[in-house]
Each structure stands twice: as C-alpha cells, then as structure tokens.
UniProtKB/TrEMBL annotation:
Annotated source species: Pandoraea terrae
Record protein name field: 3-phenylpropionate dioxygenase
GO molecular function: 2 iron, 2 sulfur cluster binding; dioxygenase activity; metal ion binding
Key words of the record: 2Fe-2S, Dioxygenase, Iron, Iron-sulfur, Metal-binding, Oxidoreductase
Listed transmembrane segments: none
Amino acid sequence: MTTHQPVITADAILERGLKNLWYPICPSSMIGREPVSLRRLGKKLVFWRDQDNKVYALDDHCPHRGAPLSKGIVMGDRIACGYHGVQVRCDGVVTRVPGSPGCKLEGSRATQAYHVEERNGAVFMYNADVHVETPPALVLPDELTTAEYSSFLCYTEWKGDYRYVLDNVMDPMHGTFLHKQSHSMAEGDNTAAFRIRDTEQGFVFEKEGQRDVNFDWTEWADTGIHWMRLEIPYPKTGGPGGNFIIVGSYTPIGPNMAAVFHWRCRKVDGWQRDTWRFLYRSRLEARHWAVLEQDRVMLEDMEPDANQHEHLYQHDMGIVRLRRHMKNLAKAELERMQNA
C-alpha cells in the first residue's frame, strides 16, 4: 500500500509556529503538580511540576502505545503512563517498562522533550525541532527583566489565526478608530504618514511627526523569541510612571486558536510602584480589558481568509514588512527540513 506524505509549505509552517524559538505557553498558575495537557504549536503537550516546583514538558504521547501521558502519574521528574506504567523522564528517556523489564524501549529517548522557563508569571517553552541539551538563552525586553519596571500579565485565548493578532498589533492606526473612546487613545490625528525604522533586533513602524500622543508606533523584535512592544501616553490621572508600555507575544494553539500574552508595564519604583499597582488593579485594569475585548471581537469576526481579499495602503506598510519577514523565516525552515 502506498502512503502519501502531506506536502509541507511555508504557510503551513507559519500556521503551527516556527521552530527553534521560545514561545510563551500559559500563565504559571495553569501548571500544578498534576499533569496538564495543552495544545500549542500544532502539538499536544504535557506539563507538570516536580516537588521543587520545577516545570517540565513532553509530547503528550507515551512511546509504547501512544496513550496520553497527561493521564499518568507524576513521579518527580518522570511521568508513569496510566495505561501500562511506562515511565518517561523529563528528557524524553524511558527509564522503566514494568511489563517487560530490560526491553529495548528502556533507556531510549523515545519522546520529544522541551526546555521550559518561568518568567514574569508565564511558562515559556523552546520549540526545538530536535532534542537539544542546552537551548539558547530566553532573552526578553527590558520591561520584563529589569527591576525598574513593574508589570501585569494579561492572558487570553482568541479564536482565529495568531497571525491576525500580529497584524493587529502592527497597526497603530486602528487605535485612533476602534479604541477612540478609550481614556488613553482619544487624542491625535485621524490621518498619518508612517515610516519603517530598522533596529538591531527587528524594526519599528511609526507615525511621522507624532509621538507620545496616541498609539503612535509598534516595535517587532526577534531575540530568540518574537515579541512586540508599543507605548500609549497616559493622562496625569493614570498615575506615576510615564507612558503605559505593552509587551506582547503570541503563540498558535491550532489553526483557529491563539494564545495571547500582553504584559502591561510602567517604569516605576519605590512608593510609585505600589501606587501604580494599586491604581491598576482598582481602576485601570477593567478599562484595559475593555480595549482588548474590542480587538478580540473584531478579529474573531473576521473570516479566516480575510487577508486574501485585502486592499492595503500606506498605513499597512508595517504589516506587509512583518508578513514578508515571517514568510522568509518559514521558507528558510522549509529549506533546512528538505536538506536534512
């Protein structure tokens, strides 16, 4: 019987997420001592914590018969499959086969394992295409790594392709219209000219002649993880800390579902940090969720092929640049696969 392998395209690679990058997976609070099964990056994965609270990740697939390891029993840095007791270590190596001791499955790395780190209230995973002993460093922007900033993680899941979320953030002009009733995005011109400015890690898409007025620019960067950053000016009633900064990173769950991470940040310390955090929880958070909800409703109601019926103009240069760059990354990955 002849079997036909599915044709892999650059678009298919982008749909499930590029390899050899770090991705945010879920808020830390979603992972406990019991195994948790999550779909991310075109895979079904199992996550759990050991007695020291360290998080591990494997393909949710027992190498014996394919049963979900997430239905098994945690044994420290191992999971015992609930179906036949096969024990798989956090590095993917089978350490014990109770039903057939000494069989060839024991000692083999038969399950894909993934490196994970916890930062800023989230679990991040390195999406390696093959097993690596040591992954590259997880490099996040200053707002998420230095003590002079304080942040809150906003996590949600949206129906639709994660690339529509990328497009939305790379579109500063939509803030002037969709979010015009927001307390922080009611200012500025309804028309604008844009330019693209290259950086060492990516590029900035920004309005010409308008800064610190509205949602005026977006930065996209690749530091081994893809992230986006923008600033929204705050009125004095918004409390201390200057502009409100949003750092975003987005992970495909499947073809029609995206994991959406936004860290809401301000540059504050001392008493200003405490003031900002109280003000955020008591007054600002609900307003920010309302703005995010406007984005969600708009994107979820777009047809999956909406980007095939576009008529783009000057405001969309950033989207075109990002799409082209992502497509080139996917083509490079496809070439590596074909030459392997």
